[in-house]
């Protein structure tokens, strides 16, 4: 059944666990997540970006998610819009049945240029008024995602600031977070602690100077009733990088957010953990391997089955590591 993000994360806060929010674009990803949730008895957040809507089409996405809920009637599902760039985008998603929207007012409507604090407060507040009137939850973002190593946002296309960010822009200020929540009324807040979108987050296994997990507790202390969200939380498994390389892929050395660091985040108040890249890596690795090992196969379902299984494997591991298992 569909539930709002607020409902789901209130339960997560009460029982001190975190919920992975997986990005979805197609049938196999949705099936993989639902399968893993059923196998571990976990609640589900399916999130769709603007890129996902462009890829699949709004109607396909909506009906695939409806099919998922129909197929697994006992699993609570949040349908969340990831990184809404404008109130108009959020309004469209609300109309199409999303139970939660993110208004990312940390960037201007181009989803690239860092916005002023006033702009962020104003756009996010307007979305909260609109969404809360119909029982839809809202996630805001304060601070810009970006690498403390390089000062850059990470991903080349998609959602993320362009150009160099200052150290200040890349870390959420706890006192400002309190003001932001009071002025906007968001249910959940995405915070900047040194993570970035995509596969290239860190050039080495991250330590406290480039991944500011300690800041989470300081932010949580200021806004204990607002659920904290970690974006850019793929762990970038070295095993999948190795398989991609073994079967012809060309990926540079890179590191993600270690699962143990996410667990520390959850202990300190993180309730929603955004993951897209890990599923991409697992599916790409599995498909490359399947093509290489079965060169005479021409039924795409064979490689898609391998991809779906690989994605489900990642999801199961995250549900278990974040304390979700048994909470569905
Ligand atoms: O926020 C970034 C997510 O990974 C979505 O990426 O814009 O390529 O769908 P996308
Ligand atoms: P990753 O690229 O680390 O998977 O992050 C996804 C994300 O934050 C989506 O909003
Ligand atoms: Zn994100």
Describe the structure.
This protein is of the alpha/beta class. It has a single domain, classed as TIM Barrel (Alpha-Beta Barrel), CATH 3.20.20.70. 45% of the residues lie in helices and 13% in strands. The chain has helices spanning 5-14, 27-40, 50-56, 58-71, 87-95, 117-132, 174-184, 214-222, 238-246, 259-267, 277-293, 300-321; strands at residues 19-23, 44-48, 77-84, 100-103, 137-142, 188-191, 227-230, 270-275. The chain has an 8-stranded parallel barrel, surrounded by 10 helices. Helix 7 links the parallel strand 5 and strand 6 (188-191). Helix 3 crosses helix 4, helix 7 (174-184) crosses helix 8 and helix 9 (238-246) runs parallel beside helix 11 (277-293). The chain is globular. The mean pLDDT is 96. The structure holds glyceraldehyde-3-phosphate, 1,3-dihydroxyacetonephosphate and zinc ion. Zinc ion binds at residues 83, 159, 197, 231, 274.
């Amino acid at each position: 059944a569909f539930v709002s993000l607020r409902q789901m994360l209130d339960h997560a806060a009460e029982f001190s666990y975190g919920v992975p929010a997986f990005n979805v674009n197609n049938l196999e990803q949705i099936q993989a997540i639902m399968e893993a949730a059923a196998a571990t008895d976990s609640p589900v957040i399916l999130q769709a970006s603007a890129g996902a809507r462009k890829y699949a089409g709004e109607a396909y996405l909506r009906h695939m998610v409806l099919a998922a809920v129909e197929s697994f009637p006992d699993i609570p599902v949040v349908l969340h819009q990831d990184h809404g760039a404008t109130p108009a985008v959020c309004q469209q998603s609300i109309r199409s049945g999303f139970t939660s929207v993110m208004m990312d007012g940390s960037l201007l409507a181009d989803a690239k240029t860092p916005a002023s604090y006033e702009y962020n407060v104003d756009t996010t507040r307007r979305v909260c008024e609109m969404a809360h009137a119909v029982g839809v939850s809202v996630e805001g973002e304060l601070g810009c995602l970006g690498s403390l190593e390089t000062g850059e946002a990470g991903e080349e296309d998609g959602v993320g600031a362009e150009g160099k960010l200052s150290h200040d822009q890349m870390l959420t200020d706890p006192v400002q977070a309190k003001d932001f929540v009071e002025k906007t009324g968001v249910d959940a807040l995405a915070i900047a602690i040194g993570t970035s979108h995509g596969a290239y987050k860190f050039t080495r296994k991250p330590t406290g100077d480039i991944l500011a997990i300690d800041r989470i507790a300081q932010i949580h202390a200021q806004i204990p009733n607002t659920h904290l969200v970690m974006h850019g939380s793929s762990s970038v498994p070295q095993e999948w990088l190795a398989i991609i390389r073994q079967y012809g892929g060309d990926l540079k050395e890179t590191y993600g957010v270690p699962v143990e660091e996410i667990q520390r985040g959850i202990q300190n108040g993180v309730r929603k953990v955004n993951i897209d890249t890990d599923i991409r890596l697992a599916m790409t690795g599995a498909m490359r391997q399947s093509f290489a090992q079965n060169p005479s196969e021409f039924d795409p379902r064979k490689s898609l089955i391998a991809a779906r299984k690989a994605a489900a494997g990642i999801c199961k591991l995250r549900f278990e590591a974040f304390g979700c298992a048994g909470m569905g």
